[in-house]
Predict the structure of Transmembrane protein.
Amino acid sequence: DYLRFADLNITLDVSLVTQEIEPLPVPSEFDLLGFCVYAIANETAQERFLCNYTVLNPWIVFTPENWCIPQQVKLEAADDYIDEYTQENANVTLSKVTHTIFSDDYIYLALPLPDVTVKVESDDVAKVLVSESALEVSEDGVLVSQYFLQLNSEPLADVKIVVLPWLDNNNTQCYRLWLCNVTLPVSEFLFTPRNWNVPQKVAVLATDDYLDEYDTHMTGISHVSYSDDPKYNAIPTIPKINVTVRDNDASGFIVNKASVYVTEGLGAVDSYTVMLASEPFAKVTVSVTNVGTRLMIELKM
């Protein structure tokens, strides 16, 4: 691939060679097919060191016997994985074919052979692939879920994907720590030009809070991308995931005693405790009221 051949230099000494030499094909990830041709816009600094197309038969020979027979030059687009879309040319990349003449006929040796423009249509689109659209988890830990992230095309720079849990299905931000309905053990994922097509697993757990929510309530996950590759920076179309959360909390009061016992005149006291069964969404005040007992005495005459 381009990383292995980026700094490759080949030097040939042909001063002592008396016969015709077949040219060396330029190595690429597409095998040794022929001459590698770069885009016109990138002739001085070839993007990613990859070819836009390959000349399959880089030498054509005319002789006094076949000079009048047209010879076909075959071109093949290099099926790379780079999104080459531009506002000016859409999915078409412009390259060109140049020619060099070798002959003992000095007239033909001096004649120019014009370049041929080549339009290469790309089929790659920069986007983030999300393997699932819906997940289900439970606060008791019985139900856990996972999904995978992957890039659809090779980036020109590293791409960081940040996974964001929602507060609920209407609010895509968590307004305080641990109040999101889902927890992500790992929330940042890095893709490089080497591993862009290797899926990375995202584990999703329900946040075991103490809030009494609906027995089954909805939340979600969104994604944000960061990269020096403009096609992968802040992609607005990364799919979101709907998450169903099964709750395990119920509102209620817990009183530790059903009755207490006190004695008049002896100073004996007793007590009981009250606590909430779940975390409230607002302050809860309990008013303790003394309800007197009415004593009925029957007088006998």
